[in-house]
Amino acid sequence: MRASSLYAPTLRNTPAEAEIVSHQLMYRAGLIRKVAGGMYTFLPLGWRVIRKIEQIIREEMDAAGGQEVMMPILQPAELWEESGRWAAYGDEMMRMKDRHGRNFCLGPTHEEMITDLVRDEVRSYKQLPLLLYQIQDKFRDERRPRFGLMRSREFIMKDLYSFDKDVEGMNASYQKMYDAYTRIYNRMGLAFRPVEADNGAIGGGHSHEFTVLADAGESNIAYCPHCDYAASDEKAELAPISAPAEDALPLEKVATPGTNTIESLCDFLKIPAEKTIKAVAYQTDADELVLVFLLGDHEVNEVKVINQIAGALELRMADEAAIRAAGGCPGFMGPIGIKNGTRILVDASVMELHNAVTGANEQDVHYKNVNPARDFDAAAITVTDLRMVREGDPCPHCGTPLKMTRGIEAGQVFTLGTKYSAAIGATFLDEQGKEQPLYMGCYGIGVGRTMAAAIEQNNDAQGIVWPRAIAPYEVVVVAVNAKKDDQLAYAEAIYEECQAAHIDTLLDDRKERAGVKFKDCDLIGYPVRITIGPKAVEAGDIEVKVRKTGEVYHFTREDYLAKVRELLEKL
């Protein structure tokens, strides 16, 4: 490809709406253009990156035994009604009616459709295991599309679904995909970490997110520097924190005027936050009141809360009327005295406290000398892990203090068990001729999100620094002055030689100033730049620059091609 014919409109200024580096650089480097909120057109350079990512994914899915299919984006409501998700999925689902009034959606995911595909075809255990995948667009009506390809309404996803005869087979398929994902991200040249994750609306059993490490990532990751434990902050398992032993003092009420925050309470009573019990009140999407209690210096993990409530999809802060109806008092809430039947969740660390302070459910009044094991009604509360992980918490596997980092979720693997097969009726006959539900797993990679994550991890002040495997072109040959026939002819010859050597090469033959071309090369991020100027024409001195390191080499015409290959092999 010649740059003079390439549609790659680069920008010197950053669009105001682009908040993070990947969004800014994809705009400036001419990779994408916005159509509407959360919807983008891929320009030629951006689409080349997408296709290279897809090719790596295809090769690894095929090598792992996957077979590629293509299912419709438009899905009938009947399938989602069978699984129970048509009403439950929420506002992210883009719904519509056809001319006959039948309900459809634009697929946000394809568990229902793939299960429907196999339920009439897979009848025997001899047909298992089966791994089917596709790479296509998905649609989710994000409340607030942002950050370019990180959170968009239309996005490209690879989704593979595994079907097995039992839990052992399902877990084997899961491990096969886990290993394939590891190879995929290694081949792309990305620094990543698989972390234990919550299954969310997909449901099922255990899950790992494949997280590309980057400061701009939305995911907080807790990891152990000693063992291999890593988990998203939503999933991280936390053991109760033990408090120093004390003799239990009598429970009593104390006036605490104006102390409706933990900070003001601690100032008033001259106590540390870890001696207080904080209350957070929620209502579910079914309007059930949920009261959560944890240490005053801890933060509540809403995902863990949702996982304690069957059927709950979302939480919102509870309104005052609901709190008072349950016997609570906003700003002064505690578990003691709440009406029976109210859902009360207590973090396990709270139960370790001695002589602590919590709200008395009266205005400007708290209880002190609270000993939860003594004073809380055990039959009225659920004790579990409800807090958010923080740096320094002990690793649940080895006890070493955890570290925190940030990352971008680019892929996720799930076990589903029989959640969808049982609901939709996808069964097979086992070795004894008995009908059994299929055991399933699902495995997704956000293709565009991976592209954005790669940029977030690989950039500098000049622009993108692509890993070789997913760069739009591996090498760019720049004719310093394309108006001079001898330089252009020499550059064309080098370009042809690189092409013949199966090096993915672009020729920048534009009649622009050299500085403009060099800036574009750095902005777009081609891994290797070959510069053809007067020295090359006159003395065979070919300049080669490595984008990642900035190192500049000078090679002869006879050895430059072998040297370029060597440099590429190191990238």
UniProtKB/TrEMBL annotation:
<protein>
    <recommendedName>
        <fullName>Proline--tRNA ligase</fullName>
        <ecNumber>6.1.1.15</ecNumber>
    </recommendedName>
</protein>
<comment type="similarity">
    <text>Belongs to the class-II aminoacyl-tRNA synthetase family. ProS type 1 subfamily.</text>
</comment>
<dbReference type="InterPro" id="IPR006195">
    <property type="entry name" value="aa-tRNA-synth_II"/>
</dbReference>
<dbReference type="InterPro" id="IPR044140">
    <property type="entry name" value="ProRS_anticodon_short"/>
</dbReference>
<dbReference type="InterPro" id="IPR045864">
    <property type="entry name" value="aa-tRNA-synth_II/BPL/LPL"/>
</dbReference>
<dbReference type="InterPro" id="IPR023717">
    <property type="entry name" value="Pro-tRNA-Synthase_IIa_type1"/>
</dbReference>
<dbReference type="InterPro" id="IPR004154">
    <property type="entry name" value="Anticodon-bd"/>
</dbReference>
<comment type="subunit">
    <text>Homodimer.</text>
</comment>
<dbReference type="GO" id="GO:0002161">
    <property type="term" value="F:aminoacyl-tRNA deacylase activity"/>
</dbReference>
<dbReference type="InterPro" id="IPR002314">
    <property type="entry name" value="aa-tRNA-synt_IIb"/>
</dbReference>
<keyword id="KW-0547">Nucleotide-binding</keyword>
<dbReference type="InterPro" id="IPR002316">
    <property type="entry name" value="Pro-tRNA-ligase_IIa"/>
</dbReference>
<dbReference type="InterPro" id="IPR007214">
    <property type="entry name" value="YbaK/aa-tRNA-synth-assoc-dom"/>
</dbReference>
<keyword id="KW-0963">Cytoplasm</keyword>
<dbReference type="InterPro" id="IPR004500">
    <property type="entry name" value="Pro-tRNA-synth_IIa_bac-type"/>
</dbReference>
<dbReference type="GO" id="GO:0005524">
    <property type="term" value="F:ATP binding"/>
</dbReference>
<dbReference type="Pfam" id="PF03129">
    <property type="entry name" value="HGTP_anticodon"/>
</dbReference>
<keyword id="KW-0648">Protein biosynthesis</keyword>
<dbReference type="InterPro" id="IPR050062">
    <property type="entry name" value="Pro-tRNA_synthetase"/>
</dbReference>
<dbReference type="InterPro" id="IPR036754">
    <property type="entry name" value="YbaK/aa-tRNA-synt-asso_dom_sf"/>
</dbReference>
<comment type="function">
    <text>Catalyzes the attachment of proline to tRNA(Pro) in a two-step reaction: proline is first activated by ATP to form Pro-AMP and then transferred to the acceptor end of tRNA(Pro). As ProRS can inadvertently accommodate and process non-cognate amino acids such as alanine and cysteine, to avoid such errors it has two additional distinct editing activities against alanine. One activity is designated as 'pretransfer' editing and involves the tRNA(Pro)-independent hydrolysis of activated Ala-AMP.</text>
</comment>
<keyword id="KW-0067">ATP-binding</keyword>
<keyword id="KW-0436">Ligase</keyword>
<keyword id="KW-0030">Aminoacyl-tRNA synthetase</keyword>
<feature type="domain" description="Aminoacyl-transfer RNA synthetases class-II family profile">
    <location>
        <begin position="38"/>
        <end position="467"/>
    </location>
</feature>
<dbReference type="GO" id="GO:0005829">
    <property type="term" value="C:cytosol"/>
</dbReference>
<dbReference type="InterPro" id="IPR036621">
    <property type="entry name" value="Anticodon-bd_dom_sf"/>
</dbReference>
<dbReference type="GO" id="GO:0006433">
    <property type="term" value="P:prolyl-tRNA aminoacylation"/>
</dbReference>
<dbReference type="GO" id="GO:0004827">
    <property type="term" value="F:proline-tRNA ligase activity"/>
</dbReference>
<dbReference type="GO" id="GO:0016740">
    <property type="term" value="F:transferase activity"/>
</dbReference>
<dbReference type="InterPro" id="IPR033730">
    <property type="entry name" value="ProRS_core_prok"/>
</dbReference>
<dbReference type="Pfam" id="PF04073">
    <property type="entry name" value="tRNA_edit"/>
</dbReference>
<dbReference type="Pfam" id="PF00587">
    <property type="entry name" value="tRNA-synt_2b"/>
</dbReference>
<dbReference type="GO" id="GO:0140096">
    <property type="term" value="F:catalytic activity, acting on a protein"/>
</dbReference>
